[in-house]
Protein 1
Amino acid sequence: MSFRSETVTSNRHLPALLLLFVGSGCAALIYEVVWFQLLQLVIGSSAVSLGVLLGTFMGGMCLGSLLLPRIAPPDRHPLRVYAWLELGIGVVGLLVLLGMPLVAGLYVAWAGTGTASLLLRGAVAGVCLLPPTLMMGATLPAISRSVEATPQGVSWLGFFYGGNIAGAVVGSLLAGFYLLRVFDTSMATFVAVAINLTVAAIAIALARITPFEPAEPAPEAPAARPPSNAVVYIVIAISGMTALAAEVVWTRLMSLLFGATTYTFSLILAVFLFGLGIGSSLGSMLARSVSKPRLALGCCQLLLSGAVAWTAYMLTDSLPYWPINPSITTDPWFTLQLDLVRCLWAVLPGTILWGASFPLALASVASPGQDPGRLVGRVYAANTVGAIVGSLGASLVLVAWIGSQHAQQVLVITCACSGLLLLEPVLAAASSSTRFQVASSIGLAALLGVAVLAARNVPEVPGMLVAYGRYTATRVGSADIIYMGEGLTASVAVSRLSNGVLNYHNAGKVQASSEPQDMRLQRMLGHMTTLVPLRPRSVLVIGCGAGVTAGAVSIDPAVEHETIAEIEPLVPQVVSTYFAEHNEHVVNNKKVRVQLDDARHFLMTTKEKFDAVTSDPLDPWVRGAAMLYTAEFFDVVKAHLNPGGAVTLFVQLYESNTEAVKSEVATFFQAFPNGIVWGNTNNGAGYDLVLLGQVEPTRIDLDRIDGLLRDPKYADVSRSLREIGFNSAIDLFSTYAGRAGDLTGWYRDAQINRDRNLRLQYLAGLGLNLYQSGEIYSQMLAYRRPPDDIFVGSDAMKQALWQAMQLGPDR
């Protein structure tokens, strides 16, 4: 039967519904950001975990859009159904926030490995995400019953969709730039719940003044057999697939170009949604007037082929070489404005076309008498299924398998084929003339040829972009890129300078190198980790990097077992090939095990304990890295230490600011009140730090360690230390820069980095283009006092140590 109603027939109320969808979209994006952050702390942030989260979130939206029209009777007032959905989302949002500690506890208690672990991650994601996302996906089909399935009504559905996206833009920016930067996940959740309650209250109020009286089913007039709608559902599914696959690929490239901070990801998401919103509004206006919406939808897909090629060219062959030096300004907001313009320039054409596709698809399958709820539910579900395939396929398969260049080539061809799939039957039905059909076939073949040509000309991802990211334009010609690869979670590169120095690049910057100051830091981390504890038999290394720290650990004869926790499978392969001489061939060492997992997830789910742990993660401004610097994570590390065990942590001073360094130091000292700071200098100025902590008060026996370094068994350790300028235990420990008790006055105003706020990534994200390391280190040294109760040994050794400290690094 057909569907006809008096519903909310007054057009004066439809703009109010549009505003409701703006609020609904804003709350939904806040929830998405918060829930992903909370759940990554539980099930990990590996590519598999992120895939599970994304698939569950979007799968819930898809199911909700399909189930609502079948569950909610058509005679229920759409605004009341919508209000109850919004209330339900708010309630579940609070339950997710309050229940997350219980979920985390159960997951840690039951987590295993292999398939069992994957199933459990899916179960956790399903329990937390499916209830609210089912309701989120149901909101558009619910409210769609306020209009009829006519060109006028369908255009309003497109506007509702665009309003929802506009709200999502606001939500992504509000969460990423304010709520989580200034407050925490609790406050962000409360704001989202308040928005849900407000939207629900307004919807109920509107329902009272807009009576809903569905009319009796209207008899259908005899008509010619309508064209099959299956091809439209296939095309809109392909549109969703290419949109999300492109978003995955482009986000990876732009995170290299702009810096992989949490602000960058919020900015990219907002711009992507902004384009979808514009496109949806334009598509809605077009749906009102065009007589052949399928033709318009097909043209959109063909134009998308060119838009994807445009963005690919911009991101790999144009924007990286714009004459821009981010370090010119010390104000991060100026850089963010520049990044916003570059992002809009690159991705807006494609996102507008993807946004326009949804309302045009609705218009293509709509016919008078249909239930608008079922109409919207089917189209939305098809688009979402495609989006799930695209996002998971690109993130878990395409990029790591064939690379960003070939992935974008596939997208260019796919968009073109999608357009031709729809245009061919439309043009065939437009005329019975054989001449016209032959001409249209030739034209479509020519368009496919143009798409193939555009795909062939998609540029390679430049190695300089992977290596130097936002500084690509200023570093052209300064190094030879001898390796570049794209993995599951990151793109890595190896470069060689003219003086023979090797650099290991990740997240668009040098993360480790054979430069003297970097080798000193990496080996300080490794050797202090094994020399300070009395029995360092089992050691955990967090982050493989170039493998130098892990290599320093491996050559200590007291170490029997070493575990390297590395999230990116590509890294151990690369460093075993290019840095083997610098890292003691650590990856191939028989007593070394490489654990491919998020280090936090590994520690939370393992029952192993260690005599020492050393952590050298990515820069704290890289989104997600702050999870390895929280007070809760340090407590987990402490719980996995054997008695007498030690923890060391790398803290960078360069490309950072005072607030971020204070946060790292203060958070570490909260878990390890007896903590100690060691300084690594470059040309006499501060460069980076090593923090050392033990549960028990630290006592370093200078005579014992000096004797070890003279022992023939420790010849490799002694040689390794000499290569970085440390000829004795005195030289190594003269890098002492203070301890927790000394530095209290310096970090008194520090913001503690916790799981609920990840404050560090927001603080550090504002300092990635700053170079204030010397100033920060000088401030810390002003608080240093003689460490009389830390070092034990002969008076001569202690006196020599203090004299070496006084002379400084350039003695």
Protein 2
Amino acid sequence: MHSTVEFGDEVSSRAKGSAVRRAVTAVAVLFVASVLALIASPAQSADGSLPKITGAVPRFGVDAARALGVADLRAITDPAEHGNGVALIDPGLDRIFQLYNLAADPHPHALAIVERDLETFSVKRTKIIPDRHAYMANGSKGAEWVATLDNKNGRLIVAYRPSGGLEGRIRTAAMPGFLTIDLRSYEHVDSSFPNVLADFADTLLPVAGLEYDESTDTVLMLQPAAHGVGSMGNALMLSGWKASDLLKGGELPAVTPRPIRACRRDPLNDSNSHYLSPILIAAGPDKEGNGSMKTWVTVPCYSSTFSTNVVIVRMDRASALDPHATQEKAVVAPAGVTAWAFDTKHGRLYLVNESAETDAWVYEVSTNAFVGIIALSPKGIAESTALSLGVDETSGRLYGRAYSYGLMISAAAQDPVPQADVYPRLSAGGSFRILVDAKRNRILSLPGVADGNSKPGDAYEVIAVPPPLPPPVREDPDSRTAQVDEVPGKTVTQFSGNASAYGLRVLLSRGVSGAVPTNGNDNAGKVAANVNSYCGFTDRELVMARVSKTELSNNSRFARAAAVDLDNATVVDLRQPSRCDAYNSYKDIPLPVVQDYIEHVVTTGALGDVDAAGVPASKTLNDTLSPKTTWDYAAADCATAKGEDEAGPNSTPLVGPTAVECGKDDEIKAYAESRAKPLEIGDVSVAKAKAWTSVKKDKDKGLVSTSSSRIEGIKIGDISIGYIEHSATSYAKGRAKSAKTVFNKPKIGFVAGPNIPSCDTCDLEQVLKNLNVALSGRAEFRKIEPEPKLAAGTPGGYEAGIIKSEKQQASDNSLTGDKSVEIPAIEMVVYNDNPHIGRARQVYQFAGVRADSHYGIQLAGAGTGGLPNIGDVVDGATGTIDPRIGDLPNGGTPLLVRMPESNENVIKRTFRQTGDYANYSLRIIFNNPREALVMATVWLLMFGPYIASRRRRALKAVTTADPEGRLS
């Protein structure tokens, strides 16, 4: 969700919608924060400025023409190349460079470079290189020069082809190559490719990506195995030369390209995309090795010739140019990438997807994972090819510009990744790189022309932007404990702990669309969307053996446990099956799979009687089916008289002994067990799952939270796992070095299956590797790491915990709708992403645990170190009512706070951070109102048996479940 930062008549309908969302957000955050909102607007900069257009830089300026000695610069450029005048910025030299391929007298077949001062935009120098044309990527679709800046040595490296096509090659006897231009002396060196890399009849330079690697003073180049040809699986090849090789001139040394084996055809150099492939070169820890910092090369590409999903392939820079190297790690990215931007300094890559909604997916080198999504447009495919991106590598800001939201500014290097502030008044289409002048807080944006943004406009708009705010200051948790011994009557203890666990958790991201394999086919995606036409794309969740809460604190004691737990939307829909009338949605689609399904419906009467028109009657459906489908299960909680769960006829087959113990003042326990034998969900079946938790006060250890889970009889296709067991414990006592955790590696045993080495007592890391090899391309297996600072315990002893980090929570929520905080022993993800649907995934989480403890000791009468409570008087002797706060709503008591001026920015940043978190968490809810209002249970109610019986895409084989144990 965005923060709309313009006011009055400048606020668009999008802005009004954002205001409504902020109002709802305020209900979910502390009331104190809503009061502070009157003081500090989170959308404006510290000086209150708003972005505004302050000037322009022409593409074909009269001053540039005069300096080149021509009357009309546009008239003599190559009309087939729309990128003429498109600029590059060198922030180190404080210069901007515009490139032109000239095609007519007085400089036919030449490349012209115009240098401008970045502060004043005045022309400084020009350069003409005869018989060379700079190579441009993708013509009019966000055209950019195949070039890279060597900021370390002040050089511009431009890929060229002989001007004049084949005739030019014959005339000059030249091959394609590089021009290396010293931006200080303005001298250049011409280096041609060796024949093995440039032997193409069409003389088009075989370059799919280009980047200078400062860490090794090397230029890296991506090229297809064969330009436009499907040989070698259309793999991408990586080559490179030392900068010293480019300075020698002449033919470059012959190199053997390294095939990137996980890559196929490059999506970002495809005819439908805008830009070259980004080659992100950045440092990060080697999480699968010894944890040392390494430099990584990451490249987006296709994982297969049939899928529209993109993968991020990551290679160790030390062996990246070794043609025999095979070490690669692939992370699944969105389907249908159309644009990109990257930030080498902060190690982040932004990929823009083409689907029902347009977002920037944020990849981070240090974690080798996607850590968030930034909304860019509600119009999806229609606008994904008509937006511009740019990055300020100094502050880590991401800039975007499009028609719907206007100018977008996100502090994208922060964690969790915040949504963008939007400025609707500055809306404009176009797909050309946004240039950033960080020194002067301004950007240069080249809008497209009005006819669908297929060509660049005549000038860069210079837009002044608010200066970036410093990152929000995070409170030290240990400030909440005074580091004193507990003394009755002299100290106050504030504690809270929570433990939760589950055996198996299944999430269908995008509802039934997360289960129906579309293999990237857009038409199949439309069919899957049609399944949801009555029920929406609501995420669906099923959990076996779940303890969702075991909480003990100063003023609360609560626990909840369920043998089987469903999401609320599914529970509601099971009471009224007519809401998910898939037959009516499907009936006019002439596809064999649909016809088979309709025949099944008609012959079995699964959806009840139909009227003369063949349309199911909702009342008949509900009266007939709801007694069999209504979820008649009640979880155990502290409010239940017996402390046990209760199951009815529809849920009894899934239930095991489940109960909570809430009678003690200093301890609370919960236990849940599911004994389905087996329960089959898609291609996964389990025989038994259980989870047990406790939170208690201990004289020596303080507050102790414990969580454990175990799952048995697991089948994943033809692969079997005997058991997985997982546990976590946290301690905190409010004194130095008292906070710690115990979190051992999960236990796994009796693993066997095709292409899987059998073991009785198994190593989890090796099992994960074996599973990823055996099921490569169909499913991904991974483990989740807990928040490291909490896992270590805070030094002052206030808190410790085994829980997902905020970054991981934000990432999972954005990418799959997963809002869980537990750490699973193993997570399996099946990808069904589709350009029409967007992200559509199945997530299977095995043996999840979470345990966190908080313990604070304060002197009696002292504050907690946090924000004041409503009605408190802070520093009562000198307290004043800040005039900007005024009376509280509904006649409440004013908040008396003495606020020195020096604290105002801290308050603003605090509220901004709180608002960002709330905005982020509510984005999924409000991104599409239809999702929030129309909810589906098709996957569970109607399509579960159908998909389970027919789908074989994710895994090769499916274990047949005991009919009595199957959820029906």
